[in-house]
Specification:
Helix content is about 70%, strand content about 10%. The longest helix has about 70 residues. The protein contains ten helices and four strands, in the order ααααββααααββαα. The chain has a single domain, classed as Outer membrane efflux proteins (OEP), CATH 1.20.1600.10.
Length: about 425
């Protein structure tokens, strides 16, 4: 790796560290994963190199055309009063119409800015994918823990039913019911463990790291809310979304490109000189070299239809970009409304299932007490145990879904 590539890599890494927002309490590990992905993800590096390549366009287009140098040798010297002309040097420089090079440079700069926004969009999308996968990992691990806890509960029920069966208080039916429930839970547990492995592979691939250490997950997912109101978020999306900014810079690049197209219909100026070497003339006298300066020429843009078509082409492209930006704005608003709905729904479900879980725990405790003291309604205990499992899972799913919705809205805002 050469020195320039090393500098670029260092700049890329430091830039991404600065660009990653600081997480709140309990989110430092996730922030570390985002930093790792920013440094290693190959897709993100590809976008950054696209941006660096676009930056190199401006020095190219703002430069003057290469000067032309010519040499001519007279096979048959041209006799003049000063002596025979033997060979000639010519040099010339073409100058585009005033402002053409600056317009080309500005167009290239705006195109590079559009590439930068494409890089920022890729970064924001990658971070959203990492956060979402992280929340799915959290929920899946919680589901494994909750399923194991419920298997322990069922095992305690099995011991209780075996004692009552030996005492002749219940039939063997209660034991069969427990075995059925445990079979279902163990099958669900095996599926969750397989899913956990798939999610871990997906997460590590997003990080693009060879480090396969155990992924750190919190015992309880943090509770955060959107800091802005709905109207403020919509305004932020319209102002900061990287897809919209990308289209905006493309429009500005086209504006300068239209200026270039207009100036293409203007004459180009060519300035140069000729230097002619003469030999000895009559009476063996040394000839005098001829130096001609300046030589000025103009290109005459006669075929106007070509230049009119160049301008019309850019005008149509500008209109297309305006319509594309309007369409993208509408799509983003629709996506935000869906994200806002998921965010509100997550909040409601957290409150609902937290309450339902507490009630289910109290009800199950009462049913256990009644069963232990002689009540034979064991089927109702199993039904309530299923509800307890469901509400426990739904509560954790609601927490993960709410944070995923916050992540999606943040992504739409360009974060």
């Amino acid at each position: 790796m050469n020195i320039q590539k090393i500098y670029i890599s260092i700049f890329f890494y430091l830039f991404l560290l600065i660009a990653i927002p600081i997480s709140g309490f309990g989110q430092s590990e996730l922030r570390n994963y985002l930093e790792e992905a920013a440094a290693n993800n190959s897709g993100l590096k590809a976008k950054f190199n696209d941006y660096l390549a676009a930056l190199e366009r401006a020095p190219q287009v703002k430069a003057l055309p290469d000067p032309q140098v010519a040499f001519a040798y007279f096979i048959k010297p041209v006799e003049t009063r000063m002596g025979p002309q033997e060979f000639k040097f010519s040099a010339s420089q073409m100058f585009p119409w005033f402002g053409t090079l600056k317009a080309k440079e500005n167009s290239a700069i705006q195109a590079a800015k559009a590439k930068y926004e494409a890089f920022e969009e890729a970064k924001a999308k990658l971070f959203h994918e990492i956060r979402t996968t992280y929340y799915n990992l959290y929920f899946n691990k919680k589901a494994i823990t909750i399923s194991l806890d419920n298997i322990d509960i069922l095992q305690s029920f099995r011991k209780m039913s075996e004692i009552k069966l030996e005492a002749g208080l219940v039939s063997a039916l209660d034991g069969y019911r427990i075995e059925i429930e445990m079979g279902d839970l163990e099958n669900q547990l095996a599926l969750l463990r397989d899913k956990q492995f798939v999610l871990e592979v997906m997460f590590n691939n997003l990080l693009n790291t060879e480090n396969k250490e155990e992924i750190w997950l919190p015992k309880e997912l943090w509770h955060t809310d959107l800091a802005l109101s709905k109207e403020a978020i919509l305004d932020s999306i319209q102002s900061n979304n990287h897809q919209l900014l990308n289209l905006s810079f493309q429009q500005q690049a086209l504006s300068f490109r239209k200026e270039v197209a207009k100036k293409a219909g203007k004459p180009n100026i060519n300035i140069g000189f000729d230097y002619i070497v003469t030999g000895k003339g009559d009476m063996n006298l040394a000839g005098t070299d001829v130096f001609v300066f300046p030589k000025i020429g103009l290109t005459i843009p006669l075929y106007r239809n070509k230049y009119k078509a160049m301008i019309k082409e850019v005008v149509y492209l500008e209109t297309a970009k305006e319509l594309e930006q309007l369409n993208k704005s509408n799509i983003l608003e629709t996506l935000f409304e869906k994200g806002w709905k998921d965010y509100r729904d997550g909040e409601r479900r957290i409150h609902l299932f937290h309450s339902q879980l507490e009630l289910a725990r109290k009800a199950l405790h009462l049913l256990e007490t009644n069963y232990a003291t002689g009540n034979k309604n064991f089927e109702e205990i199993l039904r309530m145990e299923r509800k307890l499992l469901k509400y426990n899972l739904e509560l954790e799913k609601a927490k993960a879904d709410k944070q995923a919705a916050i992540s999606f809205v943040s992504y739409l805002m360009g974060k």
